[in-house]
Amino acid sequence: MLCAMKMHHYLRSSKLTVNRNWKFISDVIRQLIRYTHSAMRSKERGHVAKTAGGKCDVDKAQVVWLGTHAFHTVLSQKAHTYGPILASLEKELNSSHSMRVQLGLKKVAKDCKRLMVILSFTGSPQ
């Protein structure tokens, strides 16, 4: 969620026109989410994690759903600005594969929404 908030602030302060560049921004979001999964796996295989017996039991589908949901939640706060990006994210969230993954992750998503309120990014949690 923090990454999505940072992207919103970056886009707001940049000269980039969201409506003209929505496809590029959507692709960046997807790449960022895939990179997050790769980075998690890389850390798990690292010396420190191996020495400490660290294990990451989150699969790629879960990371993709959580990342997509986080970006959708954050960018939805400014739906008039991010309409085409939100439509793209919604399409991914509503896919049959995503629907199966989300069943076990709804509590995590709800907790993240509460965190946004604490960080004063949105109004009230739903």
Give an account of the 3D structure.
The structure is a single chain. With 126 residues, the protein is an all-alpha fold. The chain has seven helices and no strands. The chain is globular.
What is the strand and helix layout of this fold?
Layout: H1 2-13, H2 18-44, H3 47-52, H4 60-75, H5 79-93, H6 96-102, H7 106-118
Helix pairs in contact: 1-4, 2-4, 2-5, 4-5, 4-6, 4-7
Please give the number of β-strands.
0
Mean pLDDT value: 84
- Oligomer designation: single chain
Biggest β-sheet description: none
Strand content is under 5%
Q: Show unreliable segments.
A: none
Helix and strand content put the structural class at: mainly alpha
Q: Quickly count the helices.
A: 7
Quote the distance from N terminus to C terminus: 16 Å
What form results from the Cα inertia axes? globular
- Rg of Cα set: 16 Å
* Helix content range: over 70%
- Could you give the order of the helices and strands? HHHHHHH
